[in-house]
Write a structure and sequence with these properties.
Blueprint lengths: L13 E7 L27 H12 L3 E2 L8 E10 L3 H11 L6 E8 L4 H16 L5 E6 L2 E4 L1 H16 L3 E6 L10 E7 L6 E7 L4 H10 L2 E11 H11 L1 H16 L12 E3 L2 H5 L6 H6 L5 E6 L2 E4 L3 H5 L10 E3 L2 E4 L5 E4 L4 E4 L4 E6 L2 E6 L6 H11 L9 E4 L2 E9 L2 E8 L7 E3 L3 E9 L2 E5 L2 E5 L4 E4 L5 E4 L6 E9 L8 E4 L6
Parallel strand pairs: 1-3, 1-5, 3-4, 4-11, 7-12, 14-16, 15-17, 16-18
Antiparallel strand pairs: 2-3, 5-10, 6-13, 7-10, 8-9, 8-10, 9-12, 18-19, 20-21, 21-22, 22-29, 23-30, 24-27, 24-29, 25-26, 25-28
Length: 508
């Protein structure tokens, strides 16, 4: 890659690093591998990723974008996610960023999940190269809710000051209940006479009795999983405590920099796709275990803001105001003689009678009914679905693609019916299917169709037939969404029966 001229870094320069990769199995059936929890809509209609981006934008400070003119100061965000989520993440970021925002969003794309250490180390390499080794990186998981914003921003500035002095800073949350689902940090003496504290030890998720003692003792904080440090500090600590992982990550980063397709990162708003072979060989370990726990350079900053790690349906339910009987409802529901229940209804009416402490999560293709006290066990359902090879652990009935979405309306032996929606300017790949033919009926909008050597428009209420074995491509040349019904017919209708010849989104 081209070398980047870096400006001197002020103490307050902060580059938020948003981690958005986990599958969120405890939030099934809304969160799935193909559409994980950072992208699920909360009761207020916003996504966790969208809220995190807005919070990160407020915390970011203007910096000089790589390759930009000296006067082009802007805020910069770095989002680390799986390569499969790149397009949906990009769409969500574009949706929540104001048009007037002076912000550049860059992406680091992981080929596989290797826990938080590899993700954060890759981000540190990126920031060192494209901004400065002295830049402060603010690490924010994409599945937290935090308020009020003013208190969060004040704590970020305090953490950035400590980070600029060479400290690793973690944010500790004041416990409000004997929570057994969170890790804890035991605080030591005050650091340099200020608000930050030395860290005595990290404690894994405790049992109920121990958690109650921590709450009463006033010396323990919840481990938020948010961190603040200079990029060079993180890399130095990683080299000290996990030298093999540090060396492997450096090698992986050098390979990424040498890849021609990643040259776009020298421009505003590009991406780096980390190489599969070298990244997959990295140790899979959390940043807590790899760096924070063994470091003698760590301090914890006690915070006062409200923090919610949306890790289960209990946490989601807490966002909905209860009625007089303690019931919480999101969607169209009728509850008769029910108490302390939560109902999540997406597309249809859900009725319940005589239930106590039950959660009902209804989606178009899967229904979850469970005791509210056992919602941590939802991940066991996902494990069973994986063992059975059931697609519902991975995909929704509606699947997001870079060009839009498709919804499976009906499927049986030798036929499948889909609703396809293509965004303005969206283009499916030039492709061919060995085992199925397709019949397209345009319901709304205009389709530009390529079949063989022919190219033509298909208007609303018109149709077109694509026989098996024929090259074809679909495009929306209009300014409104293109909506079609696709009827597939053939001996095999799997999504893997596709041969791509070219694709504007770089998919293979």
């Amino acid at each position: 890659m081209k070398s980047v001229v870096k400006a001197s870094v002020p103490v307050a320069e902060i580059i938020p690093v948003i981690l958005s990769g986990g599958a969120g199995t405890r939030l099934w059936p809304v969160s799935r591998e193909g559409h994980p929890k950072p992208f699920m809509k909360l009761p207020d209609g916003q996504t966790l990723l969208g809220k995190t981006v807005q919070r990160a934008l407020a915390a970011a400070t203007p910096c000089l974008a790589s390759g930009a003119a000296p006067a082009a100061a802007c805020k910069r965000l770095l989002l680390v996610t799986n390569r499969d989520y790149y397009f949906i993440a990009k769409d969500e970021v574009a949706r929540v960023l104001p048009a007037s925002a002076q912000v550049v969003t860059d992406y680091l794309l992981e080929p596989v999940g290797r826990n938080t250490t590899a993700a954060i180390a890759a981000a540190a390499h990126w920031i060192s190269q494209h901004v400065s080794p002295e830049a402060v990186m603010l690490v924010l998981p994409a599945d937290h809710l935090i308020e009020p914003a003013d208190e969060f921003l004040a704590d970020v500035q305090a953490a950035a000051t400590l980070a600029s002095q060479g400290k690793l800073v973690t944010f500790g949350i004041q416990p409000t209940a004997p929570e057994t689902g969170y890790g804890y940090i035991e605080c030591g003496a005050a650091y340099a006479g200020g608000k930050a504290r030395q860290v005595q030890r990290f404690v894994e998720k405790p049992d109920a009795q121990t958690a109650q003692a921590y709450l009463a003792g006033k010396n323990f904080l919840w481990n938020s999983g948010m961190f603040c440090m200079q990029a060079k500090t993180l890399l130095a600590e990683l080299a000290q405590h996990r030298p093999a992982l540090a060396a492997g990550m450096a090698h992986c980063w050098n390979e990424a920099c040498a890849a021609p397709g990643n040259a776009a990162t020298n421009k505003s708003g590009g991406f780096v796709e980390l190489p599969t072979d070298s990244f997959a060989q990295l140790e899979s370990i959390s940043i807590d275990y790899a760096v924070m726990e063994p470091s003698s350079n760590l301090v914890v900053l006690p915070t006062q803001f409200s923090w919610n790690d949306i890790g289960s349906w209990n946490a989601v339910a807490s966002l909905v105001p209860p009625d007089a009987a303690g019931n919480r409802v999101h969607g169209d529901s009728v509850l008769v003689d029910c108490q302390d229940c939560y109902v999540h209804a997406e597309d249809r009416l859900v009725a319940a009678i005589g239930m106590r402490g039950v959660m009902v999560i209804d989606t178009p293709d899967a229904l979850l009914v469970a005791d509210a006290s056992r919602m941590q066990e939802v991940k066991d359902v996902v494990t069973q679905l994986k063992l059975r090879g059931h697609e519902s652990y991975r995909l929704h009935r509606t699947v997001t693609r870079p060009w839009g979405t498709y919804t499976v309306l009906e499927e049986a032996s030798r036929y499948k019916i889909k609703r396809i929606e293509v965004k303005p300017g969206g283009t499916l790949s030039l492709q061919m299917h060995h085992h199925r033919s397709e019949h397209w009926i345009v319901v709304s909008g205009t389709a530009k169709v390529v079949t063989g050597e022919s190219e033509f428009l298909v208007m609303t209420n018109q149709s077109n037939y694509i026989p098996a074995g024929q090259r074809h491509r679909l495009e929306n040349p209009g300014v409104v969404d293109l909506v079609m019904i696709e009827v597939q017919s053939g001996e095999y209708l799997g999504e893997d029966d596709i041969v791509r010849f070219s694709d504007i989104y770089g998919r293979q």
